[in-house]
Amino acid sequence: MESLDPAARAFVAKLAKVDGSDAESVIYNLVRAGSRIEGGTFLALALHAGLALPALDLRPFVALEKVSANGVNWKMKFATVELGTHPRLTHLHLGSHGLRTLDLRGCPALVDLDVSFNALEELTVAREAPLEILDADDNRLPAFDARSFPALARLSLSRNALTSLDVSGLAQLRALWVVGNPIRTLTLPPKGAPLATLAVSSCPLGALSGFDVHAYPTLKTLFCDELGLIRLDLGGCASLGHFSCADNSLETLELGACPLLERVDVARNPLRVLDVRGLPRLKKLDVDAGVEVLCTERQKRAIPELRKRFGIKSNRKLADMDLWELDLVASSHNWDDGAKKLLVIARHARCDLGTALKIYWLGEPEELCAYAKPADASKHEQPFVELLRTIEARVAEGGYATREVRFEGSESDETRIPAAMKKPIRGT
Fold first, then answer.
1. Which of 97, 256, 376, 382 could staple 371 via S-S, CB 3.0–4.6 A?
2. Are 107 and 90 contacting, i.e. CB atoms less than 8 angstroms apart?
């Protein structure tokens, strides 16, 4: 405790008194990455479960650069937080408390702010702060002036009380979440912004008048459910991989310009026909039973929802599965459950080469290539080494009869991995 400055010692002693534990224990749990609070620059509140304090007073610690005190992590709650002046504070995480107001005008260097899951009705951030990340989901904020923070790259304001939002000045914005707000006016980022994620679901009817997403060719994820949309142009969204547009009023929808789509949800729209033949990577599709779906033979067998729709039998036992079912099981496997099931798939007579190679590279072959056989590895690693060597041997023998499952290939420069394991598979 001698290494702490006087203000820090007083703070620690107060916590120890409230918590009923010894001061040294609290110090151990309080400070990481440096034994001094006003020198280590990083305060991490990792207090004992159930500890509740009326206020967190950080005013004495003017040299702090990072504060991590999310209530959900450590089961502690603060009703108020006193910050004062912190000219060096760049990261502040105060999620999951009971905060109603928060004044951060004394933190002009703030870059990363997490105040999610509070009850904030007022949030004041220094206008000169170079804020890049703001997570303020699940509060009661009636407004937020995003134009004051042009460096914002990630803005999350879902489930607040916003009635309007203008992010037209955020030329660096990569992700925007505003789900579940009573928004009636939303102005999107400027054309050419590197927007990759846009989530605007569950806003009032007419909230997105002039909604135009084709200006963002970098868009990969789009959630626009329950907006009352009657039309949507995805013509410029060639990078889109996850698209959800359920509970709207779309009668037609063109997806052909989005060949990278893997997940599509268009349920509860008055669609008559949906053409997914131009989506070779599609893995999951949610669409109403009455909609005519135009798809390829591969999609009928590879996508569970389409197998069911077209009456193609699904098998529960690995021994009976076709190559598409085996690929689905392998793709959804939890590696924490070990390698036993994957080894069965890799040895299966109907396992596709693409599936085998996907399994192989998920098995971190670069980490395990030093082991020629399982016995060379640690007990924990042996099953995974066996899996990788089994796949290598079967590929070398030409033992995988089909090449219908797509595999992107690998650019690994590890010379101990056979070249055949790195080649892409186009699939069907």
1. 376
2. no
Short-list 147, 143, 193, CA closest to 166: 147
For residues 410-425, average pLDDT = 94
> What is the C-alpha to C-alpha distance for residues 400 and 81, in angstroms, rounded to an integer?
62
Query: Residue 291: CA atoms inside 13 Å, Cβ hemisphere, count?
Result: 25
315: left (phi over 0), alpha (psi -120 to 50) or beta: beta
Instruction: Give 383-392 pLDDT, tens digit per residue.
Output: 999 999 999 9
Range of the domain at 414: 318-421
The residue ranges of DSSP E strands in 100-251, in sequence order, are 101-104, 112-114, 122-125, 133-135, 154-156, 164-166, 175-177, 185-187, 197-199, 221-223, 242-244
The string of pLDDT tens digits covering residues 114-130 is 999 999 999 999 999 99
What are the structure tokens assigned to 2, written together? 């001698």
Q: Domain count for the chain, please give it.
A: 2
Residue written as tokens 């605007």?
200
Both tokens of 357, joined, read 């190679």
User: Is the CB of residue 11 less than 8 Å from the CB of residue 36?
Assistant: no
Phi and psi, residue 268, nearest 5°: 60, 50
155 CB burial (10 A radius; 0-12, 13-18, 19+)? buried
Contact 418, 396 (CB under 8 A): yes
Residue 80 vs residues 43, 118, 172, 298: alpha-carbon distances, Å: 17, 11, 32, 57
Q: Residue 235 domain-assigned?
A: yes
In a shared domain, residues 287 and 338: no
Whichever domain contains 58, its CATH number is 3.80.10.10
pLDDT of residue 214: 82
Per-residue b or e along 261-300, where b marks 16 or more CB atoms closer than 10 Å to that residue's CB: bebbbbbbbebeebebeebbebbebebeeeeebebbebbb
DSSP helix/strand/coil, 86: coil
Same domain for 162 and 18: yes
